[in-house]
Design goal:
Aspartate Aminotransferase, domain 1, Aspartate Aminotransferase, domain 2, 2 domains, 7-stranded mixed beta sheet, globular
Length: about 375
């Protein structure tokens, strides 16, 4: 099994950080690269002409590797909201159909469709949060609901941010295919940890940022968009998205036709010399460890926590319905804010999400971290 990688991060022994589903720490290697990149920006005359292009393609290739995509099928974007807006502009949703979203899903894969529904003539159909935590069955039931309008699109997270509920995207895709519907996946809480192969899955779009599980910086994200949708109009009009708009040519606007791949959807001002390299490093590290190894380690850590708190009267979702890397604990009346604050006072960092305690370890955590958490919870709940 993959051992703890704590030595690759700047995390003091007394800190028990179990909140990677919010923000992950940066590896030492990434911190060093960031400092060097700031210095490089301070002396722009040292940057060679091909540097920006190499940075773009390194990041694009690293992101593509995580989901088994071709690099040219991946666009550089700043955020999931940008990605969903890009996809919404590129896709054509039939009037009179449903766009399926998850109850309490994060704002990005949901709000864009609410904003477009009336004008484009579709309805937003929300999958209720299941009491048993089985999101896959809940999504399937919504797709197949008798008497409902046809499904045009599902826009959902592959792992629910609030409770760590796992959605079996293969089963959902199979159901959507039977209805001739499209599939847009927000992989924020799964990329790099839960394996995804877009070549076999064939979704219409997948997007993910780097600042959570991909141990990267804020403001860098990536959009995979299927080749069948690479003929759309981008959200922004940029020179990089056109075949030949080049300031070094005698004629600036040489060829205004769009490039024939997903790079037409790249964001404007994509030359982020500092954070693109930082994002690449984190994604490359995750790919080297491999999703299977990372997932197995984090599943082991969360199972250790689940076993340790099982007699404390906490609600622990069944292992069969939760993601391997996120553990959500509940209690009657909801987890009190004071309990989260007490843990923080002990230098144990978790998150309160929709009345539940969300615990999200990463590769830098070890068994000592989890035993501390269980010990403090036991003392707090048993008095």
């Amino acid at each position: 099994m993959l051992p703890s990688q704590r030595h690759l991060f700047e995390i003091p022994r007394e800190v028990c950080y179990l909140n990677s589903a919010s923000y992950s720490p940066l590896p030492l290697k990434t911190l060093d690269a960031g400092r060097a990149a700031v210095g490089r920006k301070g002396q722009p005359w040292t940057i060679d002409p091909g540097f920006a292009s190499r940075q773009h393609e390194r990041a694009r290739s690293a992101a593509a590797r995580l989901i088994n995509a071709a690099p040219d099928d991946v666009a550089l974007i700043p955020a999931i909201s940008y990605g969903v807006a890009t996809v919404a502009k590129a896709l054509s949703i039939p009037r009179g159909t449903r766009v399926i979203v998850l109850e309490n899903d994060h704002s990005s894969p949901v709000l864009e469709w609410h904003a477009r529904a009336e004008a484009q003539g579709f309805i937003v159909d929300t999958v209720p949060q299941p009491a048993d935590g089985d999101w896959t069955s809940a999504v399937s039931a919504t797709i197949e609901r008798p008497g409902a309008p046809p499904v045009g699109l599902a826009s959902i997270s592959s792992v629910h941010w609030s409770d760590g509920g796992m959605i079996d995207v293969d089963k959902v895709q199979a159901a959507l295919r039977r209805h001739g519907a499209m599939f847009v996946i927000d992989a924020t809480q799964s990329a790099g940890v839960v394996a995804m192969d877009v070549t076999s899955l064939d979704p219409d779009a997948v997007m993910f940022p780097t600042y959570k599980w991909l141990i990267g910086p804020y403001g860098r994200a990536f959009l995979y968009i299927a080749k069948r949708h690479q003929n759309g109009v981008p959200l922004e009009q940029t020179s990089s998205g056109r075949r030949n708009v080049n300031s070094e040519n005698p004629v600036y606007f040489g060829d205004l036709a769009y490039v024939d791949n997903a790079t037409r959807y790249d964001m404007g001002e994509r030359d982020h010399f500092i954070t693109l390299e930082m994002a690449s490093i984190g994604m490359e590290m995750m790919a080297e460890w491999g999703a299977a190894a990372v997932s197995a380690r984090l599943a082991m850590l969360n199972e250790r926590i689940a076993g340790g708190v099982r007699d404390l009267g906490l609600d622990v979702p069944a292992r069969s319905v939760r993601a391997p890397h996120i553990l959500s604990l509940g209690m009657a009346g909801g987890i009190p804010k004071e309990l989260i604050a007490r843990l923080a006072a002990e230098n144990i960092h978790v998150a309160l999400r929709l009345g539940r305690m969300r615990i999200s370890p990463h590769v830098f955590n070890d068994e000592a971290d989890l035993d501390r958490l269980v010990a403090v919870l036991t003392k707090s709940l048993r008095g």
